[in-house]
């Protein structure tokens, strides 16, 4: 069950098109009461519906053009410690828990191949990491997106 309804979806789509719009502007665009818009925006803040702005900044623009994914096999007794250590590695941009052959999928960025080698070594050196396998991202074919899901909700599907 979703926490968002069709009105939320319409508001999110408007924000996708005009991310700097004010509450009054959004209310006018969507023909909603200003209080309705403000209440929903406040609820989203409280519920952390929207991701932080840093998710919108490309690592490439920060000087990290190389992206890789590292599959990590972890000693299960040390999983929490491993995650805590990975969080300290600046160039780790995301860690996802997996089922299957690997336990974690770690997304990293680097300035060049030498930097990537260094970052991979930092991860392999974390106590509790048993094995890693790295894949370098050659080209992002479909970027992270939720707009199609928002559009589907807006249509009431």
From TrEMBL:
Keywords: DNA-binding, Transcription, Transcription regulation. Residues 70-139 form the Transcription regulator AsnC/Lrp ligand binding domain. GO terms for cellular component: cytosol. Residues 4-43 form the HTH asnC-type domain. GO terms for biological process: response to amino acid. InterPro entries: AsnC-type_HTH_dom, Dimeric_a/b-barrel, Tscrpt_reg_AsnC-like, Tscrpt_reg_AsnC/Lrp_C, WH-like_DNA-bd_sf, WH_DNA-bd_sf. One of its GO terms (molecular function) is sequence-specific DNA binding. The keyword Acetylation does not apply. PANTHER family: LEUCINE-RESPONSIVE REGULATORY PROTEIN, TRANSCRIPTIONAL REGULATOR AZLB. This is AsnC family transcriptional regulator [Rhodococcus jostii RHA1]. It comes from Mycolicibacterium parafortuitum (Mycobacterium parafortuitum).
């Amino acid at each position: 069950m979703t926490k968002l309804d069709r009105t939320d979806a319409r508001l999110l789509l408007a924000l996708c098109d005009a991310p700097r719009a004010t509450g009054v502007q959004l209310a006018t665009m969507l023909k909603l009461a200003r209080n309705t818009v403000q209440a929903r925006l406040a609820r989203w803040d409280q519920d952390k519906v929207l991701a932080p702005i840093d998710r919108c900044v490309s690592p490439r623009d920060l000087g990290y053009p190389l992206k890789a994914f590292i599959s990590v096999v972890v000693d299960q007794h040390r999983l929490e410690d491993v995650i805590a250590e990975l969080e300290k590695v600046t160039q780790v941009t995301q860690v996802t828990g997996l089922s299957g052959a690997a336990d974690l999928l770690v997304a990293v960025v680097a300035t060049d191949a030498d930097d990537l080698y260094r970052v991979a070594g930092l991860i392999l050196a974390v106590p509790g990491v048993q094995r890693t396998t790295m894949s370098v991202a050659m080209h992002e074919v479909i970027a992270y997106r939720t707009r199609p899901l928002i559009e589907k909700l807006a249509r009431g599907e």
